[in-house]
Amino acid sequence: MFQTYEEALHWIHSRLRVGIKPGLMRMEWMLEKLNHPERKIKYVHIGGTNGKGSTVTYLRNIMEHAGYETGTFTSPYIEQFNERISLNGFPITDEEIVQLANVIYPLSIKLEDTELGGPSEFEIITAMAIYYFAEMHPVDLAIFEVGLGGRFDSTNVIHPLLSIITNIGLDHTQFLGNSYEEIAFEKAGIIKKDTCLISAVKQPEAKEVIVNRAKEMNAGVYLLYEDFFVKNHHSIETGEVFTWQHEEQELQNITISMFGQHQTENAALAIMAAKQLDKEHGFQISDSQILTGLKDAYWPGRFEIVSHNPLLILDGAHNEEGITALTAELTKRYGDKRIKLIFSALSDKKLDKMIEKLDKTADEMTFVSFDYPRASMAEALYNLSRSSQRKVQEDWQKAIMAEYTTLKENEILVVTGSLYFISQVKVFLKDTII
């Protein structure tokens, strides 16, 4: 059994070697041995390609301001592993991680000897989160973010009060399929019988798959821009302002501190979820609590300004949809500036189109690598670019310091790419610049 946090974390991370193991049987096996803690919790389940973490944050803040103990399970982490299991926005303690690891470890050993095989890292952390919110610190509501896809994701053992699918993009195609319809089918796997679905999916073919699945499950459906709306949106220096509307209900002058049209849509999903929790599930949530919760919501690594003078922005744009949102926001807000960009990504992403979009927006590009098993080499990224102002630097720390310390008044520095990369950058900047 584990005595220290370091020992527990080493064991958890050692399970990365087994890779991604789709399917629910290992989770179901562990939860049965734990006497089904998943049945003791009220959940909201959030899937989609982009915006899951932001939507979790918006809804969590609303629930906290309404006076409810709220747990969250998210991935990946930005600064500290413990963030993945958080209570009212605060990561659980190192001691609690040790306790949880000591609960799950014996089950992992026994599971290894079955035909199912041992659990993956993500399955272990999911089981830890469920056990924590059921047994160690019961909560009023737990908000769980899907890890990959939905149908066979380890979080899909839960039975939520409602489900949210943020959007659909062509990401993780090696696991989920090569078309919007195929990916939508996997995401729609989180829709449960007789529950409500809230979604911002836009592609007609993906929307059709999701709506049809909801009908099969007798699930009520609320679609953004069909059943509820973002209106009167405009950007301000510190974020976005918009109006939310559903039938006769309207919330005006909603202010959020996260940047971009896509963040107003994520916030709109959270508002719709809060309204449903209030109307159908016994939670009492006022409009003023919604407005305050949204205004206070913060999610690191999403168009995060970490330095104003000179201007340094971090953004975990890790797929084509994320890059599209980032480049649109940079063009809108900083079109008069010279944009210098540092980029790194995982090698299993569709990198060509991502880099093509960055080439069109950045005045200067630096491609780097970072310490992660699936990280792309900087040279490989460089070779995908067609920018006339591009360079390669294997040492990302040197690249950031070189660019940051020489920024001119009319220039900005944007560090973007994989969230795993941004996580390392964030820790580095905390020790050097911030």
Which keywords apply here?
434 residues, UDP-N-acetylmuramoyl-L-alanine:D-glutamate ligase, Protein-Tyrosine Phosphatase, Chain A, eight-stranded mixed β-sheet, six-stranded mixed β-sheet, 17 strands
Provide structural commentary.
The chain has 15 helices and 17 strands. It has 434 residues and is α/β, with parallel strands linked by helices. It folds into 2 domains: 292 residues, UDP-N-acetylmuramoyl-L-alanine:D-glutamate ligase (3-Layer(aba) Sandwich), CATH 3.40.1190.10; 129 residues, Protein-Tyrosine Phosphatase, Chain A (Alpha-Beta Complex), CATH 3.90.190. An 8-stranded mixed β-sheet has the order 4-3-2-5-1-6-7-8, with helices on both faces. Strand 9 and strand 10 form a beta hairpin. Helix 3 crosses helix 10, helix 7 runs parallel beside helix 8 and helix 11 runs parallel beside helix 12. The model has no long low-confidence stretch (mean pLDDT 94).
Number of helices: 15
Per CATH, the architecture of the largest domain is 3-Layer(aba) Sandwich
Number of E strands: 17
The whole-angstrom Rg is: 21 Å
Fraction of helical residues: 40-55%
Percentage of β-strand residues? 15-25%
Offer a quick outline of the entry.
The protein has 434 residues and is of the alpha/beta class.
Outline the secondary-structure elements:
Elements: H1 5-14, H2 25-33, E1 43-47, H3 52-65, E2 70-73, E3 85-87, E4 90-91, H4 94-112, H5 121-136, E5 141-145, E6 162-165, H6 173-176, H7 180-187, E7 196-199, H8 204-216, E8 221-223, E9 229-236, E10 239-246, E11 249-256, H9 261-280, H10 287-296, E12 304-308, E13 311-315, H11 320-334, E14 338-344, H12 351-361, E15 364-369, H13 378-384, E16 390-395, H14 396-404, E17 411-417, H15 419-432
Parallel strand pairs: 1-5, 1-6, 2-5, 6-7, 7-8, 13-17, 14-15, 14-17, 15-16
Antiparallel strand pairs: 2-3, 3-4, 9-10, 10-11, 12-13
